[in-house]
Amino acid sequence: MIAIDGWVASERSGECSLHLDVTFDEARLGGTEDAEVRFRVRIRSCTVVVIIPDAHKLAVQRGSVDREIPLQARLRRVAEHGEMHGLGKEVAEFVKAGSIEYEALVRERGLDPATQNSIPVVTASHRAMPNGSHSWKLKPSFGQHLEGKVWNPNDEPRMKINDLRSREEREADEKNGLSPVVLIEILCKREDIDIYDIRMNDDVMQAELEEGKNHAVRRAAAEGFIRSQLMQQGLTVGDMAKVFSDLTVADFVMPVEY
Predict the structure, then answer these.
(1) Rounded Cα–Cα distance for residues 1 and 28 (Å)
(2) Cα(101)–Cα(103) distance, rounded to whole angstroms?
(3) What is the pTM of this model?
(4) CA-to-CA distance for 237 and 247, rounded, in angstroms?
(5) What pLDDT does residue 52 have?
(6) What is the pLDDT of residues 139-193, one digit of tens each?
(7) C-beta separation of 43 from 137 below 8 A
(8) Cα gap 232→215, rounded to integer Å
């Protein structure tokens, strides 16, 4: 469902920038022989949280936090204007920015770049948390699910971070192979996870369920599968049967690199 990558890189002594790459896609789970159920799952919305565990070593530059709508996750609106193409009205369609389809469409129609606009695919609402962490609530602008990349990790860093350690402390940490880290968590509610196309791997059981139209059994099996997978990763899992139950669906640790 979610792929995370990122890094905390120093730009000069004592200052770093946090780059985060988050990508969403449909997941197909339960394909192994020992799985009782197979299904598809996607994320409707979630919250990305940046946590500084070592507050005495690292501090966020508040004015540097990116609070804008992501530029990476956008759709391009390729418009044909009536005056240009002899049409009675404007014709517009949306394709993913930077995609092969977009580039082909621009070339095929010989469009003027001035007629191309873009709109966000994902809205990212920033919030400063009471504990000093920063979060972004992600929601799709179109459709029901999050899809593709949210930020361009190179051009859209989340924030700048000050390294509060003295030179001596930093050298001592490096000598001992230590480094302060930034923790990324992706949180959601149970209702934010869409589970569908559920099928029991046991054909006999599947046939019995279809005859009884007992979708609740299959859904419970899928929820149990997701819960076990998250718990194996040491993540926080609430009651999957409750729509407002809290889930930590992914986490990622990034050491400060010099």
Answers:
(1) 9
(2) 6
(3) 0.77
(4) 5
(5) 94
(6) 987 778 998 889 988 888 999 999 999 889 988 988 998 889 999 999 999 899 9
(7) no
(8) 26
3-state secondary structure the chain: CEEEEEEEEEEECCEEEEEEEEEECCEEECCCCCCCEEEEEEECCEEEEEECCCCCCEEECHHHCCCCCCCCCEEEEEEECHHHHCCCCCEEEEEECCCHHHHHHHHHHCCCHHHEEEEECEEEEEEECCCCCEEEEEEECCCCCCCEECCCCCCCCCEEEEECCCHHHHHHHHHCCCCCEEEEEEEEEHHHEEEEEEEECCHHHHHHHHHHCCHHHHHHHHHHHHHHHHHHCCCCECCCCCCCCEEEEEEEEEEEEC
Q: Which two tokens stand for residue 24?
A: 């969403």
Q: How many CB atoms neighbour CB 40 within 10 A?
A: 17
Q: Is the Cβ–Cβ distance between 8 and 16 less than 8 Å?
A: yes
Nearest 5°: phi and psi at 232? -65, -30
Residue tagged 């780059």 (tokens): 19
Distance CA 193, CA 230 (A): 13
In angstroms, the CA 135 to CA 52 distance is 12
> What whole-number distance in Å separates Cα of residue 9 and Cα of residue 16?
5
